[in-house]
């Protein structure tokens, strides 16, 4: 005889085996990697598609330009040489407007182009000339810059433009050993109602040359802010020892800003 069947009850189901943590972590890691790879692939595809569209747009633009130029060329052919159904009047007007747009510079661009050109600063280079004055005198030289921004009078150089200037001077002098008096080069700023301001100073040394006059040179230079009306000049302790041979003694200013 068959055994009687027991009625179905959920409590009679065998208990389910719990999912291990390792399996769950592996599953989540795979899902995460898949999602990240999908996002990266999507971004790369969008970038590729964007570059391809730009390239196609450029090619279409070039093609349109080529077609337009071919139409212009066809319209420039003599009448009767080739039958054309093009509206040459409209094409010629479009081409003329295009050329005019390239030739005309907008008003807002022209001032910017003019102001962007670098301005040449004023400069002057002078050579020493013998005089009986207590300060060195100067003269213009060939192939040397000269500018109306400076005036040379009685050895004093007057500036007419405010700005930063690079001042340089070289004085060549006789340095005989028996001349024990020191030889100094001094560059002064002469102010109308103030005491002269010392800008530069160079100190000479005694020479040991057996020549009648062993020549030595002193060079001084610096950058200084000058105002319109300021005057600079060069003085030495013994003007009789200065050598005025070409290129030996000179003085100059260069405007930097």
UniProtKB/TrEMBL annotation:
Domain of life: Eukaryota
Annotated THD domain residues: 122-256
Pfam family, one: TNF
Membrane topology, from the record: Single-pass type II membrane protein
UniProt keyword annotations, A-Z: Cell membrane, Cytokine, Disulfide bond, Membrane, Secreted, Signal-anchor, Transmembrane, Transmembrane helix
Compartment annotation: Cell membrane; Cell surface; Secreted
GO molecular function: CD40 receptor binding; cytokine activity; tumor necrosis factor receptor binding
TM ranges: 27-47
Record carries keyword Membrane: yes
Gene Ontology CC entries for this record: cell surface; extracellular space; plasma membrane
GO biological process: immune response
Main localization category: membrane
Function text: Acts as a ligand for integrins, specifically ITGA5:ITGB1 and ITGAV:ITGB3; both integrins and the CD40 receptor are required for activation of CD40-CD40LG signaling, which have cell-type dependent effects, such as B-cell activation, NF-kappa-B signaling and anti-apoptotic signaling.
Protein family: Belongs to the tumor necrosis factor family.
Protein name according to UniProt: CD40 ligand
């Amino acid at each position: 005889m068959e055994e009687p069947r027991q009625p179905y009850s959920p409590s009679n189901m065998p208990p389910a085996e719990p999912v291990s943590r390792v399996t769950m972590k592996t599953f989540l890691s795979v899902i995460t990697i898949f999602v990240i790879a999908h996002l990266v692939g999507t971004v790369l595809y969008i970038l590729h598609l964007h570059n391809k569209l730009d390239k196609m747009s450029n090619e279409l633009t070039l093609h349109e330009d080529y077609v337009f130029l071919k139409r212009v060329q066809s319209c420039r052919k003599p009448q009767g040489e080739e039958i054309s159904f093009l509206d040459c009047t409209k094409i010629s007007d479009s081409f003329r407007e295009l050329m005019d747009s390239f030739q005309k510079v907008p008003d807002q661009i022209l001032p910017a182009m003019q102001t962007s050109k670098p301005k040449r600063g004023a400069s002057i280079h002078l050579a020493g000339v013998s005089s009986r004055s207590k300060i060195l005198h100067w003269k213009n030289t060939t192939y040397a810059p000269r500018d109306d921004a400076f005036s040379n009078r009685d050895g004093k150089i007057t500036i007419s433009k405010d700005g930063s200037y690079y001042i340089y001077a070289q004085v060549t002098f006789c340095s005989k050993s028996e001349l024990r008096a020191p030889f100094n080069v001094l560059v002064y700023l002469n102010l109308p109602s103030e005491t002269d301001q010392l800008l530069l100073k160079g100190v000479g040394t005694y020479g040991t040359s057996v020549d009648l006059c062993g020549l030595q040179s002193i060079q001084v230079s610096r950058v200084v802010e000058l105002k319109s009306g300021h005057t600079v000049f060069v003085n030495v302790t013994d003007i009789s020892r200065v050598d005025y041979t070409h290129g030996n003694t000179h003085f100059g200013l260069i405007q930097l800003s």
